[in-house]
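Researcher: Here's my situation. A collaborator sent me these components and asked whether they could plausibly form a single complex. I don't have experimental data yet, so a predicted model of the whole assembly would be a useful starting point for our discussion.
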Amino acid sequence: MASSAIDELHRIGSGYTIARYTVPGIKDLPVACKILFSRNQCDLVMAFGMPGPKPVDKSSAQIASQGLMQVQIEYGKHIIEVFVHEDEADDEKTLAWLMDRRSREHAMNAYNILFNPKALTAMAGTGLRQGYEDAGPLIDSGRSGKIRH
Amino acid sequence: MASSAIDELHRIGSGYTIARYTVPGIKDLPVACKILFSRNQCDLVMAFGMPGPKPVDKSSAQIASQGLMQVQIEYGKHIIEVFVHEDEADDEKTLAWLMDRRSREHAMNAYNILFNPKALTAMAGTGLRQGYEDAGPLIDSGRSGKIRH
Amino acid sequence: MASSAIDELHRIGSGYTIARYTVPGIKDLPVACKILFSRNQCDLVMAFGMPGPKPVDKSSAQIASQGLMQVQIEYGKHIIEVFVHEDEADDEKTLAWLMDRRSREHAMNAYNILFNPKALTAMAGTGLRQGYEDAGPLIDSGRSGKIRH
Amino acid sequence: MASSAIDELHRIGSGYTIARYTVPGIKDLPVACKILFSRNQCDLVMAFGMPGPKPVDKSSAQIASQGLMQVQIEYGKHIIEVFVHEDEADDEKTLAWLMDRRSREHAMNAYNILFNPKALTAMAGTGLRQGYEDAGPLIDSGRSGKIRH
Amino acid sequence: MASSAIDELHRIGSGYTIARYTVPGIKDLPVACKILFSRNQCDLVMAFGMPGPKPVDKSSAQIASQGLMQVQIEYGKHIIEVFVHEDEADDEKTLAWLMDRRSREHAMNAYNILFNPKALTAMAGTGLRQGYEDAGPLIDSGRSGKIRH
C-alpha cells in the first residue's frame, strides 16, 4: 500500500521528501507516527494497515485509530489513516485492487492537504470515496467530511 | 452543510468572521479543529460530517467524536459537531433536507453559545431537536443537554 | 433537572453559590464543565443530560461521559453526571418523576462530597440508588461505588 | 468490600497507613483516586465498585475503568480495580462471598506490588484468579497478566 | 510467555539487558510499562497477557490496550502487546503452543524494531502472522501493519 501511495505522490507532484517506518502490527502505528513527527519533522503521515476480519482484529483497529487520533491532536498535524479491512473484498484480486486504489486516492488527499487545500474544498460534497465506486453528489457543497476511510 | 450553516449565521446576526477548513474524511476533523483554534484563533468551531451506514463507518464516527471531544477540552472552547448519518433518511431528498435543517439549527446554537447564552437556558427542557420533529416540552425547565446530535 | 437539583440543594443546606451554564447537547457538557472549573472556579459541577433511545444517542452519551471523566481528572474535582435516558421509563409522567428524583438524590451526593463526606462512607453498602427503588443492603459496609447512574 | 480488604491487609502485614474516600458512584472513583494520590500522597489505591447488570451499567463500568487507567498513567502508580458485577452471581449469598474473597485476594496483590514484588513473579502462570475457583497452571511461568478482574 | 520471549531474544542476538516487572492483571500492565520506561529507562517493553473468554474480560483487554497505547504515545517508545486470548484455542496444549510461538515471533519483532528496522520493511506485505499459520503474500510490498495481535 505504501508503494502505491509513493508511486501516486510522485505522479502528482514534487517538492517533498518521504520517510518510511515499518511496524509489525497496526497497534504499533501511532507511536511510529509520533516518531516520524518528532524525529523526522514530518508535516503529515500516511498510516497504512490491513486489519483482519475477527472481532479481536476490529478491536485492535479501533485502538490503533484512537492512538492515531491522539498523536494527530498532540502535534496538530494530519495523519491520513489508510486501512483496508481484509473482509472488505471477497477475493484476493479485488482486495489487492482496493488496496492500490485507496492508497492512491488517500495520497492525493495527503498532497492536497499540504499543497492544494482549495482542491479539497472544491471536492467537498461531490461524494468521492476512497476505493470502490463513488456515491455521486447529493447536494452541491458543504459536505466536508463526506469521504470515509 | 457548511453552506447552510454559513447562510443561517448571516441571517441571524453579525459581529464575527468565518474561517473554513475542508478535510477529506471525518477522522481528519479533530486536528483541523485544533488548527482552527491555534492558528486562526477561532472561538468556536462547527464540524460537519456525514458518516456512512456500515459498522466501520460508525466506528470512524465514534473515533472522530472522541477526537473532537479531546480538542474541545484542550482548548476549553466549544466544537459543535454536526453529523448527519447516511442512514438517518431513506431517500436522498429527505437526507438533503435533514442536512440543511440540522446545519441551520446548530448554527443557531453556535451563535447563542457565543453571543446569547441566555437564549439556551430559556430553551432548555423545551424538547427542541436538530432536524426532524421536536419532542415537545416534558417538564418546564432544567433539561439542559436534551437536544441531541 | 437542574431546577430540581437547585431546589434540593437549597433544602439541604447553604454555604455555597451556584453558577449555571446551559448547552445545546450532551456532548457540549464536558467543555462547559471545564469552563465552570476554570472561569467560575467551581468546586464541583453537576452535569444534567437526557440521552435519547437510539444507538447513535447511546454512543453520544458514552462520548459525553468520557469527556466528563477527562475534565474531572484534569481538575481533580468531581463532576456528578446526572443522565436520565429517555428509555428508562415507558411514559412521560414516570420519566418526569425519575428526572426529579434522580436530580435530587444526586444533589444530596454533591452536597455530601463537599460538606459531609462522612455521610457517604456511612451510606456505602446500603444499596441506595438514584431514582427507582433502592436495592437494600447486602452486606453492611464497604460497597462504595454501589450507587449507579 | 473495602472492609474485607482492610481486614486482609492487617492480616498480611504492617508498615503502611490507610486513607479512605467514599464516592456515590463508580464513575466518581477516578477523580477520588487522583485526590488520594495528590493530596494524601498514597502509593497505591484500591478502587472498589459494584457495577449493575444493565447495558448502561456496563458502559459506566467501562468509562470508570478508562478513568482509573488514565489516573494510574498520570501518576505512574497502581490502582487496583476491584469490581464485582452484580450479575456475576445468581444469589446474594454467593455475591457477598465473591465480594469478600475478591477483595481479599486483590488486597494481597496490592501488598505484594508494594512490599513483595518477587511473590508476583513467582505466582505468574499459576492460574490464580480473584474469586471463584482458580484455573490451575497451564505452563510454568511467564503468564504475567493472567489473573483477571 | 515472558520466558519464551526471553529465550528467543537470547537466541537472536545480544547487546541488550532485560528488566522484568510482573503484575497481577492485564489492566495493571500500562502503569508497569510506564515504570519500566521512566525508572528503568527501557527502550522498548513487551507486555504479556492472557485475557479470558468472558465479555468482561474482553472489555478489560480493550482498556488495557488503550492504556498501553497511551503510555507508548507519552514516551514515543514501542510497547509490543503480546496477548493470547484464552478462547483462541480449544485445548490447553494448543494454547500453550500458541503462547510460546506468538511470544517468540513478537520477540523477533521487538528485536528488529530496535536493532534491525530494515528487516521489518522487507517483511511488510509477506503476510506473516504471530502464531498459527501465515497468510502468505498477497501483493509484494507496502502492507505494513498487516501482522496482527
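Model: Some features of this prediction you could bring to your collaborator: Residues 2-117 of chain A form a domain with the Rossmann fold fold (CATH 3.40.50.960). The CA atoms of residues 51 and 85 of chain A lie 5 Å apart.
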